[in-house]
Amino acid sequence: MEVQVFQTNGIILVCIGIFLVVAILVGLMYKKKINATEDFTAAGRSLTWPFIMASVVATWIGAAVILGGASEVYEYGFQGIVWDPFATTCTLLLGGFFVVKRLRKTRSVTVGDFYTNRYGDKMATIFTLAQAITGLAWVAAQFKSFGILIHMTTGFNSNIATIIGAVVIVFVAMTGGLWALSRTDMISFIIITISLVFMVPFTVSAVGGLGNFFSSAGNLADLPEFSIFYNFTKGADGSPHGFYWYGGILGVLYALSAWIALGVGDLSCPVLNARTLAAKSERHAAKGFILGGIIYFILGMIPVFIGVAAYILSKGQMPEESLDYILPWFVQNYMPDWLGVLFMVSLAAAIVSTAGDTVLIDSSIFVSTLVKRLNPDITDSQIVRKLIWALPVYALLSYLVTFAGGIYELLVFSGASLFPTIVTSYLFGLFWKKANQKGAIASFWAGLIGWLILTFFIFLPAATNYFDEGVHLIKDFSYIVSEGYLEDSVYIAAVPAWIISIAAMIVISLKTQKSDPPKPITDIDGIELDSVVMN
C-alpha cells in the first residue's frame, strides 16, 4: 500500500506552476498599493468579510492539516482530531464572538504594536521574540510539506521544490504584502473548497454508503471511533479508554489540553489577528471569523471523513511509516485523475497561503516592534523597506529549520509553546484594566518555567510509568521519545501551566499597581476602547 508517483505528474506540475505564476502576478499587481506600513501589513484596513473569511480558512487549513487530519483519525479515531478541526474551529468562533471586535478597535498595525501600547517595550520584545522563534518552526513545516508534496506525487527533487516554493511565497509577500496575500488566499480558498467538496461523493461511493461507513469505522489504536472527550468505557484488556488510553487525571488533562491549548491558545495567533487588524471594520472582522469558523469546520471534517474511509478500505493495514500519505493514497486509488490533479493543486495553494501569511506577519511584528524600539525616529517608509528585506531573511532561517525535524514535530513545537506563555497576557491585556507589564512578564515566565517543570519532572515520569513501569527516564530517553510519551507530556502539562500563568498575571499585577501603573486599554490615538464606537 505505497503511494506511487502520480500518472498525471506532468499535469500536476504544470497546474501548480500556473498557480504560482498567478500568485506572482497578483503580487506585482498590488505592489503599487504599498505606500505605508499599514498598507503592507494590514492591506490598508480594507478587507471586507468575504476576504477575511477566505483568508482565515485558507491560512488555517494548511497542507499539514489536510494530510494530518486523515492520518490522525486513521490512527486514533476522533480523539486524534480534537485539536483540529474541533479546537481550531472554537478559536475562530470565540474570536469572532468575543475577541476580534475589541482588538480591531485598537487600530494597531500589528499585534506587537498592541503589546507596546498596552504593556510597554519589555513585554512587546518578549512577545516578538517568542513569536518569531515559534513562527520559524511553523513556516519550516509548510516549506517542508511543499517539498514532500511535489516529490511524493511527481518524483521531482523535494529540496529543489522546497526552495522554489519558498522563493515564490517570499516574492508575493515582498511585492504585494497583505494586499496580495489576501487575494491569493481567496484563490486558494476557492480551489481548496472545490477540491474537498468534490471528494465527498466519491468517498461515500468507495465505502459502500454512509451506513457501512458508520458501522465499519475503526482506528489503529482501537479507541472509540467517534469519541471527542474523555471516554469512561474500557477496552478488551480492562484498561480505560480515557483519552489516548490515558486514564484518571492524565487522561482528563490530556482531553482538556486537546480542546483548550489550540481553542484558546491560538486566539493570540498573530497571523489570524493580522486579518482582524486589516478588516474594514469591527463588524467585518467578526462576521469573517464566525463564517470562517463554520466553513473551516465543514472543510476540515472532509479529510477526517476520508481518513475513516481509508481505514475501512485498507482494513487497517496501512504501514505506520505511510500514515502521512493516507490521503494521497486514497486519491490515487479511489478518485478520478482530474480530481487528483485538483487536490494536489489545492494542497500547494494551502501551503502558499499558510506560509506566505506567516512569513509576512512574523517578519512585520519583528521589524516594526524591535526596529522602532532601537530607532524611535525611524520614518514609516524606512520601516516598509526594512520589512520588505526582512522577509527573505526570515524565510531563509525557516528553510534552515526544515532540517531540524519532521513536519509534525515542527508543528507541535510551534503550537504548544505559545499557549502557556503568551495567551494570558494577550487576553488580559484586552479585557482586564489592571493588567500591567510586570504581571504580563511574570505570566510569561511562570507559564514557561511551570510548563517545563511539569512536563519533565511531573507528567513525563507519570505518563511513562502509566504504560511502561521501570523505564529509566535518562538512560531510556530515546525510547521514551520514540513512544510519544514526551509529546503526550507536553500537552498534558499545558493546561496546568496556563493556570500558573494566569495566577502569576493576577497576583503580580495586583501587587504592583503602584510601582507599575497599568496602561489604559486604548486605541492608537489614546482613546479608551470602551469609549470607541463600533463600526
What does this structure look like?
With 535 residues, the chain is mainly α. 72% of the residues lie in helices and 1% in strands. The chain is built from 21 helices and 2 strands. Strands 1-2 form a two-stranded antiparallel sheet. The N and C termini lie far apart (55 Å). The relative contact order is 0.17.
The N- and C-terminal alpha carbons lie at a distance of 55 Å
How can the largest sheet be summarized?
2 strands, antiparallel
Q: Looking across the biggest beta sheet, what order are the strands in?
A: 1-2
Q: Please indicate the percent range of residues in DSSP E strands (runs of 2 or more).
A: under 5%
Unreliable segments of 5+ consecutive residues: none
Q: What order do the helices and strands follow?
A: HHHHHHHHHEEHHHHHHHHHHHH
Give the tally of β-strands: 2
Structural class estimated from helices and strands? mainly alpha
Measured on Cα atoms, how large is the radius of gyration?
Answer: 23 Å
Q: Helix coverage percent of residues?
A: over 70%
- What is the averaged pLDDT score? 86
Number of helices: 21
* Principal-axis shape: globular
